[in-house]
Design a protein that fits this description.
Elements: H1 5-23, E1 28-30, H2 44-47, H3 56-62, E2 66-74, E3 84-90, H4 109-122, H5 129-141, E4 144-148, H6 157-165, E5 169-174, H7 183-186, H8 203-211, E6 217-222, H9 229-240, E7 244-246, E8 249-251, E9 282-288, H10 299-304, E10 306-309, H11 330-340, H12 349-374, H13 383-398, H14 407-419, E11 424-426, H15 428-447, H16 461-477, E12 479-481
Parallel strand pairs: 4-9, 4-10, 5-6, 6-9
Antiparallel strand pairs: 1-3, 2-3, 7-8, 11-12
Helix pairs in contact: 4-5, 4-11, 5-13, 12-13, 13-14, 14-16, 15-16
Length: 485
């Protein structure tokens, strides 16, 4: 006789209890391992159909028996053996040392991100707390975040919903294929009417950010690579690089906004735009479909952005959206945005050194090893990439996000988003480099065991999977790249 959903849930709890007794509280596992510990009286193949299993982890997490680590691992069930899947650990009902705050009473960044994820899920948009944390940390570090991937994975919805739930400003800017220079973003003076200024696509966001300095403003560049990004966006990126601290405040060079000259004795209608610097509370999020109809990103763009790929939706997952939705606490969630744009946030590793220097040295050593592996294939990365990774991990630690994203999951995101997008080309040298990189990533968990930073000792499965797929593409086609692999 088939088991009911409640009976399956009860048996899953028993299986988790058996796993805890067998492996201890630090054990981490894919969800399909749970079914290997089902009571012997249950015929798993008949009574727990494979279609009923994917829904149980969400219920177990909601009940406190299971938590995601934020990392990825390999499935072990025969149907999906070897495929990448979410990594779990025991929840607070089984391991009391792992504490949880009830939804709706968020008191920390991690709990606020959990609440935000629950609110998005209630609206039918599925994203894990770790993925939200990754997006949050990327925006904290960089004024530009790129969301790439296949169509229909929610690239445009993520920043829109983030802005809504944090009470932030949001402006959607559809990029046009004919954009060729910065006038499309920053506006221009018509040749025949030199006293007039035509707004650029980014003008409204700039003015809103200047008018509300304590409020996050997100400008969404939708399908940003329909036009060559370095053509219309290079000036923005160059100005972003001039960020420095003067008398405690973050300042930049003025943005290249061409305005009519001031007429003595007349009102200056463009005073609000003159000398405009890049506001510290403005974030640009670009979406990109990587196909034959779009342009690839230049090294200059990749160097200065965090590239988050939304390319592997889990089609067996379903939202828990119901007709009875719990309203999120917008006031509590808006604290996330306020933390992101604080003037006191470190903008260089020098400013973060007092808190994080030992960790910086540890991670920099690992990055140097990756650099040495990739260098024979002509692939290198510089201080800008290193510093962005170190600041990301600095804020991961500062905001105490380890309970929703382990240190090795955070490091995995960094390698995937800041280093691997630079890998492209052909030839035996690249093939050898990818093979060695995959081996290094796989051995990372063992090589870091017992280190002074055990939080970074764990599976880097996101990066391993991408590296393996890039190597496979190289073997099949004679050339490879990050996008679409």
């Amino acid at each position: 006789m088939s088991l009911s959903n409640d009976q399956i849930f009860a048996h899953a709890i028993s299986a988790l209890t058996a796993m805890l007794a067998a492996h201890g509280p630090d054990y981490k596992f894919p969800s399909d391992v749970i079914w290997q510990y089902m009571p012997e009286s249950v015929n798993v193949d008949i009574d727990v159909p494979s279609t009923a299993r994917p829904h149980q982890p969400a219920r177990l997490m909601k009940a406190g028996y299971l938590e995601k680590t934020g990392g990825m691992t390999r499935a072990q069930a025969s149907q999906r053996a070897g495929s990448s899947t979410a990594e779990y650990r025991f929840g607070p009902k089984l391991v009391p040392l792992i504490t949880a705050t009830p939804v709706g009473s968020a008191t920390s960044s991690s709990e606020r991100l959990k609440d935000m994820g629950a609110a998005m899920d209630a609206e039918g948009y599925m994203v894990s707390a770790a993925e939200l944390a990754n997006f949050y940390l990327a925006m904290t570090v960089s004024p530009l975040v790129i969301l790439s991937g296949i169509s229909g994975t929610g690239k445009s919805l993520l920043p829109r919903k983030f802005a809504k739930l944090t009470n932030s400003g949001f402006n959607s800017i559809p990029v046009q294929p004919q954009w060729t220079d910065n006038s499309d973003l920053f506006g221009y003076i018509p040749t025949l009417t030199p006293t007039k200024y035509i707004d650029g696509a980014l003008t409204h966001s700039l003015l809103e950010a200047k008018a509300t300095p304590s409020k996050l403003v997100i400008a969404l560049l939708d399908e940003m690579n329909l036009a060559p990004v370095e053509h219309y966006f290079s000036d923005f990126l160059s100005v972003a690089e001039t960020r420095s601290r003067v008398h405690g405040n973050v300042v930049t060079d003025p943005l290249p906004i061409e305005l009519p000259p001031i007429v003595i004795g007349a009102a200056d209608h463009y005073a609000g735009l003159r000398g405009t610097q890049l506001p510290i509370n403005l974030r640009v999020v670009g979406t990109a479909n990587m196909d034959e109809s779009t342009h690839t990103f230049s090294p200059k763009v990749l160097d200065r952005a965090f590239t988050i790929e939304l390319d592997d939706p889990v089609l067996t997952d379903f939202s828990s959206a119901t007709t009875k939705n719990t309203q999120p606490d917008i006031t509590a969630l808006s604290i996330l945005a306020a933390q992101m744009i604080q003037q006191t946030n470190a903008i260089t590793i020098q400013e973060a050194r007092a808190e994080s220097q030992p960790m910086f040295e540890h991670i920099a050593g690992m990055l140097a090893e990756i650099q040495e592996i990739l260098a024979p294939a002509g692939i290198k990365f510089g201080y800008r990439t290193r510093d962005a990774i170190l600041l990301y991990l600095h804020f991961w630690r500062k905001h105490e996000l380890a309970d929703i994203m382990t240190g090795y999951a955070a490091l995995d995101f960094c390698i995937l988003q800041k280093i691997l997008p630079k890998v492209a080309g052909s030839g035996d040298a690249l093939s050898g480099a990818l093979e060695k990189l995959a081996a290094w990533l796989t051995a990372h968990e063992i090589s870091q065991a017992g280190d002074q930073f055990p939080e970074f000792a764990g599976k880097l499965d996101r990066s391993i999977r991408k590296t393996e797929r890039m190597a496979m593409l190289l073997d099949l086609n004679g050339a490879t790249r990050f996008w679409g692999a």
